[in-house]
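As the work plan foresaw, the team has encoded backbone shapes as discrete tokens. One protein thus recorded appears below exactly as we store it.

:::
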Amino acid sequence: MKRVVILGCSGSGKSTMARRIAERTGLPVYHLDAYYWKPGWVAADPETFDAEVAEIAAEDRWIIDGNYSRTLDLRLSRSDTVIFFDYPRYLCLYRVLKRRLQYRGRSRADMGEGCEEKIDLAFLKWIWNFRKRSRPKLLDKLRRVQPLQDVYRFRTPREADDYLKRLAPKP
């Protein structure tokens, strides 16, 4: 395991999993939200963002968490391991609401600086529609890369925790 892509709906635990795998493997972590969102929730210029992702993906070792479909094929082509959180929407919504309370008035470490935790209707709709809109495309891409990479699809937090327990700690 040298290059890991972590995918899933907002609130599924992508960033937490990235940090936990990094603790066990020593791989560097890149949270795509921190590259995409600039202070005040301003989206990055697409060409700049794509170039940053391409530079990260060209490295030998990494964990990249985030969906961002425009750069997904590049990341998948360079990865050796893919983790997909396929959790129910109620769990993701609950976790996002919990996270909002936990980080009220602050930016998370995995988010762009100057992006205080917030929830708006568009974000909630994105989470609500993830299984219908984004999930089928992700599953299709994962089916295509599965013969070439280790693909893990977690349907419950327990499955993800069991995976981490089996992951050998760094020497």
Summary: The chain has one domain: 3-166. The first helix runs from residue 14 to 25.
